[in-house]
Amino acid sequence: MTLLARPTRRYDYVADGAAIYDESFATIRREATFDHLPADAERVAVRMVHGTGQTDLAHDLVVHPGLVAAARTALEAGAPILTDAHMVASGVTRARLPRDNEVLCALRDRRTPELALALGTTRSAAALSLLADRLEGSVVAIGNAPTALFHLLEMLLDGAPRPAAIIGVPVGFIGAAESKQALEDAPADWGLDIPFLTVRGRRGGSAMAASALNALAQERE
Prior knowledge:
Elements: H1 17-31, H2 42-52, H3 57-60, E1 61-63, H4 67-76, E2 81-83, H5 86-91, E3 103-104, H6 112-119, H7 123-129, E4 139-142, H8 146-157, E5 165-168, H9 176-190, E6 196-199, H10 206-217
Parallel strand pairs: 2-3, 2-4, 4-5, 5-6
Antiparallel strand pairs: 1-6
């Protein structure tokens, strides 16, 4: 068999990329409900469902009414994206970014392990402290570590510069649901009213965070 030859077709499947893309989004809209979300957040939610294959994800999405406008305005002004994990950063489609925005993660910074020990927290959380001087007006995306989301909220409550928007979708069994609930409750509990997106419960992850970022970076589906 020649390496560049197509193998013998043995399965019945759609092989046209454009058709797969279009039908995927049509299927999501048939099977999921987005009525509880701000109208301008539907495409963000659809892309997050597309990135996870979970149509019921829409039920657990919580989106601040100002999230989409705040995030898009910030990105179009050249704001950086700060993340807690390199997997989130890797999932961002650079071609969708409106101003070739920086996507920053300090997890591999040589100072991070020592700082984590000094602060008594995880490396993911400590890495955010190293990006504190880039927080102002940024878009922060937490897709892995609940400790990073808790740490971010505590930084902000201590007076750290405020980002334009927060995507808080850490995943896991310890602290994930609680950290996301803390983000959702921050306006009422602390008067910390920063536009946010989160997903209630344990599920989340880097792919989910990157999907949200890609949708916010460009309105085109």
